[in-house]
Amino acid sequence: MSDVFSKNASEVVNKVPLYRGVAMAIGTAVGVGMISLTPISVGMWFGLSVVVLCVTGFMMWLSCSVLLEVNMNYPLGTGLHTMVEDCLGKKWGAVSDIAMLFLGFTLIYAYVSFGAELFRSLVTAYVNIPRPIFVILFMAPLVLTVINSSRIISMVASFFVAILFILYCVLTFSLIGTVQVDTLINLGGESIPTLLLYALGGFVFFVSATGFHQLIPCFRKMYDDDTKRINHCFAISLLLIIAIYVLWSYVTLGNGSRGEFINYIKNGEDYIGMLTRLSSSDAVTTKAIGALFLGLAVVTSFIGVSKGLIDYMRDIFTRNKYKRIRVEWLIFPPVLMMVMIFPQGFMYGIGFAGFCGVLWACFIPAITVIKSRQKFTSQRYTTFGGAIMPRVLMLFSIVVMVSFLLLVINVLPIIG
Length: 416
Prior knowledge:
This protein is mainly alpha-helical. Helices cover 79% and strands 0% of the residues.
């Protein structure tokens, strides 16, 4: 009897708090969005950007849910590569792998290129460190963090997200007092059909800014296959992500007209310069807080995306009997080399990563769950909505991917 009590006590003590998973999810998603969504939202303006964000958030929650449904049919620790290949075959497995690897590598490259340049610009006034050396100094502690256990990574992510939240509140407070509500509803003479075209082209960036699907196998381990807690983690994370972005859009876009923001972007003004111009606080203080905020946003996203990519590649090599390969050596040296050769690729990287993200995190999960329901007659967990929801997700994926391709060939408009 005492053994039973001690076991239960141990389970209670070792139970991972829900906020750690939420912190990992928010940290993974919010970093890219805080930097990319304001420029993208300028085209469609505030009201429509909120609609696009809510639609995207719902679809991303749906795709998380169907991925969890499929993953629950496999042993704990099974990666997304294994389940896609098992349900759809090797060809679709290869498509999924290419999309996920391109997504992961591109995002990490974008975070390192932006983050290293940002922090280097802050220290240049005090010490001039050559860029290649600074990039290595920036990456090294982050890599040492993500090769640890899920529990340690979640603790580090929670710490950074807490600081990020404080800085977010400070910046929001400095901007909210000067918001002009009239500017948020003033379309600057632009027609509704034109704004809708901007919205179609912007969906792919919103997908990049709300995704954390690569963490699902990690969440299963953290919450010991408790689908209720995992779903709570999904829902709370996405609701908070939406709230963070809506408030951020409110305090930024509400401090200038659509025409002013278009001029900022076309003139190549950097994001910190834009924040400094908008804020009512001291310019030097705003610049320092804004830089630290954006830097930490990039760091938290790096941690989440890197952890997901490491787990995914481990699943590939384990399934192919190459268990001893240290996948970290296959990820970070190539990223470092790309950053050295192509240092200015943040927005391009985010756009193409979003396309791969839609393919990997929305379209493939939709067809995978349909096959999974045929393959496994008894489900441990089932997504709401029956057979219709995977098809809704599939339709959304096709629309977003086609829209991005039209954006690339300049059929759809984009600011900048």
